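Sanity check. The docking grid for inosinic acid depends on where the pocket ends up, so I'm generating a full predicted complex first rather than guessing from homology. Inputs follow.
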Amino acid sequence: MPEKGRNQLKVLIRRAAIRKRVQEVAKEISKDFKGERVHLVGVLKGACIFLSDLVREIDLDSSLDFIAVSSYGKGKESSGQVRVNKDLDSSIEGLNVILVEDILDTGLTLSYLKRILLQRRPHMLKVAALLDKPSRRIIKDIEADYVGFKIPNEFVVGYGLDYAERYRNLKDVCILSMPPE
Ligand code: IMP
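Predicted complex below; grid placement will be based on this.
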């Protein structure tokens, strides 16, 4: 893994492990919704790579939509205030919605998204998160229904996750450590 600038990258989850786990999660979803249609809602931009691998492994009638949010915050910290930058293209009323997230950290983004999506009366709303950092949770009762990997309290990039829009294209999930400012 090349070093980018002065930031250090260390592999946390290798691409082969990600591929295997994505297949397992897709299998679980396919079993839970057997015979039904699922509507996957990807949270841009971080979830785009997870979603595109996941949907291709799901053996169900599926459709896709995307929502883009940003949370105000400085550097690696989120402040908890979330703003929708791009809303869904179509109604989710009556659909089996699976919200696809890159990472569940404090839970503030997910709690906001669940609230606004539930107001639109889907038949069901489930959450699939590639990564979960339970030790960082501020919203205590928020969980994903499908979790790829529980990870320690480290800032990670790759497989869709970024730092200042960089590193999304890394094939492995890597820990990013930066020199102090
Ligand atoms: P939460 O609202 O604190 O749960 O944060 C969710 C969002 O923060 C994620 O969708 C990511 O965009 C971002 N985030 C949280 N932790 C990380 C990380 O370790 N690397 C990259 N982005 C992260």
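Relevant for the grid: The two ends are 23 Å apart (CA to CA).
Also worth noting: The longest strand covers residues 61-71.
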